Amino acid sequence: MPSFSPFRGIRYNAEGGHVDDVICPPYDVIAPSDREVLALRSEHNAVHLEVPRARDGVERYAAAASLWRRWQAEGVLVADEEPSFYAYRMGFRDETGRPRQTTGILGALHLEPPGRGILPHEHTTTKDKADRLELLRATRANLSPIWALTPAEGVSALAETSGPPDSRATDDQGVHHRLWRLRSPAVIEAVSEAVAAHPVLIADGHHRYEVALAYQAEVGQGGGQDRMMVLVVELSDEELSVRAIHRLVSGLPAGFDLLGALDRFFEAVPAEAMDETILERMAAEGALGLVVEDGTWLLRPRPDTVAAAGHDLDSSRLDVALATLPAHDLRFQHGWDLSTAAVAKGEAQAAILLRPATVAQIAEVSRGGERMPPKTTFFYPKLATGLVFRSLDL
Prior knowledge:
Blueprint: E1 4-5, E2 10-12, H1 32-41, H2 47-50, H3 60-73, E3 77-79, E4 85-93, E5 99-110, E6 118-119, H4 126-139, E7 141-142, E8 146-150, H5 155-158, E9 167-170, E10 176-182, H6 185-196, E11 200-204, H7 206-219, E12 227-234, E13 241-250, H8 258-262, E14 266-270, H9 278-285, E15 288-292, E16 295-301, H10 303-308, H11 314-322, E17 329-334, H12 336-344, E18 350-353, H13 359-367, E19 377-380, E20 390-391
Parallel strand pairs: 6-11, 8-12
Antiparallel strand pairs: 1-5, 2-3, 4-5, 4-10, 5-12, 7-20, 8-11, 9-10, 13-17, 13-18, 13-19, 14-16, 15-16, 15-18
Helix pairs in contact: 3-4, 4-7
């Protein structure tokens, strides 16, 4: 069973805990243009660590490590005096506009190979892992937490707090991020016991988890590298908002009839104009969405496609069809509006919109020891980088 422990967090030394100007999203959702905006917002913005750039002739990973050390030496970042768990709450609106909250507990999860105490649900790609491994080697720090789910009931209640948060921020999407230290010995014991009672499912952060395992194997066991910073949230529909990651297709031969090629796998039905109702229409029809330059369709999977897919997921069904297409480029994009805009701007030949996996599907796949295709799930909101960091050397 998983081992979950408090740790000495390193946090910004900010008056009143207000850190709006120095938080950033995790690395995998920061576009180059977003990175520049964040970097200009503050010389101490966490993006300088999370997505580093070469500085003064020093390569990017070494530059991040230098900043990490310097900010601590200058008192920009300060280590908490004793190990703590951290209650973390995000307030946001879901895709229908309904107010929601996600509450979990940040701690240090003991690393172990996936399969028993820790269950993944997605495959990973090599490129992202190489980048994160270089950054971990240079900084010896967990700069951003990954997200895990526990079936243990009562974890949300253990994260209930009173009083003002120790750190707080509102991000560019209007999501409110709040962090409280949990220092009571009784609460610490209760949290550790609750998480240890069941295997945890990795929700978001598969690349970073595999990188942490690779780094532990590289340097050996017996130090801070044996654990990593993880937010544990109850496996509950009320606590979680899962969105789809859509597919952008480009590089197909000129004049290629994509709709015709997909006909073998999907029944195509002309869709109405593309607007914010598209996801509801896809759900009602049990269909994927296809957007190309000359039209929009709903794609209902044919029975043979459903049978050939590894899982009851749009990503798995689409993979069956994509494998038969001529050589092409495939990119991943969250947001139906951003996906369709890519087609309108000529940045992609087609956008294929997927329905999100459900919490129940994620749990079923993980417990069965299988994995979904890469980039199947997009947990929203994204955890902020910069509320708290974890050094492997404390």
